[in-house]
Amino acid sequence: MAKRQLNVALIGRAFMGKAHSNAWSQLNRFFDSSYEAVLHTICARHREALEPFAAKWAWANVSTDWKAVCGDPAVDLVDIGVPNNLHAPIALAALKAGKHVACEKPLAGTLADARRMRDAARRAPGKTFVWYNYRGVPAVAHARALVRAGKVGTIRHVRAVYLQGWADESVPLAWRFDRKLAGSGSHGDLNAHIIDMNRFVTGEEITEISGAIAETFVKTRHTLVGPVAGGIAEGLKKSSRKARVTVDDAVLFLARFSGGAAASFEAARQATGNLNKSGFEINGTRGSLRYSFERMAELEYFDATADAAVRGWTTINCSNHAAHPYAAAWWPEAHPIGYEHTFVNSAYNMALVLAGRKPTAPMPDFEDAYQTQRVLEAALISARLKRAVKLSQVK
User: Fold this and answer.
1) In the chain, which end has fewer C-beta atoms inside a 10 angstrom radius, N or C?
2) Contact criterion met (CB below 8 Å) for 273 and 257
3) What are the backbone dihedrals phi and psi of residue 255, each rounded to the nearest 5 degrees, phi first?
4) 130 pLDDT exceeds 80?
5) Is the pLDDT of residue 145 over 70?
6) Cβ atoms of 305 and 286 closer than 8 Å
């Protein structure tokens, strides 16, 4: 049977532009999807960088006008991979035009923009998705399955951390350091991931934030000259002029989950020596789980119900085709996948939803991602007011 075409238009060609281009191009090579993803249009501001990008990733068309792309009747899905302040206007235009929309995380730079996006998605015919790609990690999806199977019991304690060390004083003032463009710093960049990840794995919602701290260590940076080359801080050129940094470098907070568990969250982009340390530990009445993205293929499990003579932490290599999410699409057991594959797995989940099928693991839609945005907002309020904030107070 011939597959239905899914004409994708991607807006943004930098770091996430590469990740998303690869995901859509690899989808049909590894997964049996009802859709054939077609790289229809790539859109970005700088045409001189856009043309070679389109040629490298085999995009059929190029554009510098995102409004025209959103209105193009040939486009089925608009994929948003630009700075956070542009998520809302592009998503609103695409939804109004009847498109499906996939948006990079966090949902928006501000809670107000995120709310507008959620409300528009409720009214629109198109499906919505947010690229919280760590849901596409086999070990993370397996952790969720173990929690749902009762292997952990009642969750009592959660620890979540996301540490990077790239944002030292030498890095110029790119968009990630500008509140008007990003909304926040390490908080929306990193805490957003681990908030979503732990909501996903535990199946519970965060109900209260307390003890929040937000700190900016580097107060000013040299201004940026020219476009970003494609990495987080790759190829950034700086001028002699300096300007003020308006986002956080680190945000830490305590939280309470709906099932009663106490939790801590920690995000920093100046944690020297940490390249991309993301993970969690979940402790329950029947067992515990530990995960670190630095050992992406592995999930650690402690079975508290096992015989004391053999009880201890077990390391599960989550690559068994019959037992672990996504594994059958990739390589033989213990032949690891990498960061880029989490996006391919995520694209596959989107294709399943669009085909009316059950995804391997749920991808957040705008409604779901809005709940993470509320937690982000509550933590910033708690840090500013130096008091506890209930999520019921953050609409």
Assistant:
1) N
2) no
3) -150, 165
4) yes
5) yes
6) yes
Match 């173990």 to its residue by tokens: 146
pLDDT at 1: 58
Q: Is the pLDDT of residue 227 over 80?
A: no
Q: Which domains does the chain have, with CATH numbers?
A: 4-130 (3.40.50.720), 154-284+365-385 (3.30.360.10)
Cα 291 to its chain centre, rounded Å, is 17
Taking the C-alpha atoms of 237, 243, 248 and 249 in order, what is their torsion angle to the nearest 10 degrees? 50
| Integer Cα distance of 312 and 302 in angstroms | 6
The Cα–Cα gap between 133 and 364 comes to 10
pLDDT-based confidence at residue 233 (cuts at 50, 70, 90): confident
The three-point CA angle 18-21-22 to 5° equals: 85
Taking only the tens place, the pLDDT of each residue in 163-221 is 999 999 999 999 999 999 999 999 999 999 999 999 999 999 999 999 999 999 999 99
* DSSP class per residue in 280-338: EEEEESSEEEEEEGGGTTEEEEEETTS-TTT-SEEEEE---TTTSTTGGGS-STT----
- Residue spans of alpha helices (H) in the chain: 15-30, 47-57, 66-71, 87-96, 111-123, 138-148, 179-182, 186, 192-202, 339-354, 366-385
Q: Show the tokens assigned to 126.
A: 């198109």
Residue environment code for 54-70, b if the CB has 16+ CB neighbours within 10 A, otherwise e: beebebebbbeebeebb
